[in-house]
Amino acid sequence: MEAVIGKHCLLNVQQKQSGENIYANVIGVMPLKKGMAAIIPTDYKRVKDRDPKAPVVDADEPPMPDYDQSAPITDDDIQF
What we know:
The protein is mostly beta strands.
């Protein structure tokens, strides 16, 4: 697996249902076609290379606002 990590490719993924679960199975891996531009990820670290003490932050999600955790949450606090 280490030989293909970081390489650009096309994946053929097939969904398969098993009971109530749906799984995505990789059924084929191919090199990029001629003329296809490779996507270069930025600011990405493999899980094994990350600092385990660093907080997990999703760049697409805004940070959660601070709130008073001592007060119970009521229906009025939830936006519908």
